[in-house]
Amino acid sequence: MSTPQSYEAAVAGSPDKVAEFDHGPQSFIQKFQHALHVTPSLVPLIVLVMSIVIFGLLLGSKFFSPFAMTLILQQVGIVGIVACAQSLVILTAGIDLSVGAIMVLSSVVMGQFTFRYGVPPVMGVAFGLLCGLLCGYINGWLVAKMKLPPFIVTLGMWQIVLASNFLYSANETIRSQEIAEKAAFLQFFGEKFKVGGAVFTYGVIFMIALVLILAYVLRHTAWGRHVYAVGDDKEAAELSGVNTDKVLISVYMLSGLICAFAGWALIGRIGSVSPTSGQLANIESITAVVIGGISLFGGRGSVLGTFFGALIVGVFTLGLRLLGADAQWTYLLIGVLIIAAVAVDQWIRKVSV
Amino acid sequence: MSTPQSYEAAVAGSPDKVAEFDHGPQSFIQKFQHALHVTPSLVPLIVLVMSIVIFGLLLGSKFFSPFAMTLILQQVGIVGIVACAQSLVILTAGIDLSVGAIMVLSSVVMGQFTFRYGVPPVMGVAFGLLCGLLCGYINGWLVAKMKLPPFIVTLGMWQIVLASNFLYSANETIRSQEIAEKAAFLQFFGEKFKVGGAVFTYGVIFMIALVLILAYVLRHTAWGRHVYAVGDDKEAAELSGVNTDKVLISVYMLSGLICAFAGWALIGRIGSVSPTSGQLANIESITAVVIGGISLFGGRGSVLGTFFGALIVGVFTLGLRLLGADAQWTYLLIGVLIIAAVAVDQWIRKVSV
Amino acid sequence: DEKVTACLITKTDTNPFFVKMKEGATAKAEELGMELKSFAGKIDGDHETQVAAIETCIADGAKGILLTASDTSSIVPAVQQARDAGLVVIALDTPLSPIDAADATFATDNFLAGELIGQWAAASLGEEAANAKIAMLDLGVSQPTVGVLRDQGFLQGFGIDLGDPNKWGDETDPRIVGNDVTAGNEEGGRKAMENLLAKDPMINVVYTINEPAAAGAYEALKSIGRENDVLIVSVDGGCPGVQNVKDGVIGATSQQYPLMMASLGVEAIKKWADEGVKPEPTPGKAFFDTGVALVTDKPVKGVESIDTTEGTNLCWG
Amino acid sequence: MEPILRGRNLVKRYGKVTALDHCDFELMPGEILAVIGDNGAGKSTLIKALSGAVIPDEGTVELDGKPVNFHSPIDAREAGIETVYQTLAMSPALSIADNMFMGRELRKPGWRGQFLRQLDRSRMEEVAREKLNELGLMTIQNINQAVETLSGGQRQGVAVARAAAFGSKVIILDEPTAALGVKESRRVLELIQDVRSRGIPIILISHNMPHVFEVADRIHVHRLGKRLCVIDPKQHEMSDAVAYMTGAKEPDPELSAA
Amino acid sequence: MEPILRGRNLVKRYGKVTALDHCDFELMPGEILAVIGDNGAGKSTLIKALSGAVIPDEGTVELDGKPVNFHSPIDAREAGIETVYQTLAMSPALSIADNMFMGRELRKPGWRGQFLRQLDRSRMEEVAREKLNELGLMTIQNINQAVETLSGGQRQGVAVARAAAFGSKVIILDEPTAALGVKESRRVLELIQDVRSRGIPIILISHNMPHVFEVADRIHVHRLGKRLCVIDPKQHEMSDAVAYMTGAKEPDPELSAA
Ligand SMILES: Nc1ncnc2c1ncn2[C@@H]1O[C@H](COP(=O)(O)OP(=O)(O)OP(=O)(O)O)[C@@H](O)[C@H]1O
Ligand SMILES: Nc1ncnc2c1ncn2[C@@H]1O[C@H](COP(=O)(O)OP(=O)(O)OP(=O)(O)O)[C@@H](O)[C@H]1O
Ligand SMILES: O[C@@H]1[C@H](O)[C@H](O)CO[C@H]1O
Ligand SMILES: [Mg+2]
Ligand SMILES: [Mg+2]
Question: Which domains does chain D have, with CATH numbers?
Answer without folding.
Answer: 5-92+167-256 (3.40.50.300), 94-145 (no CATH)
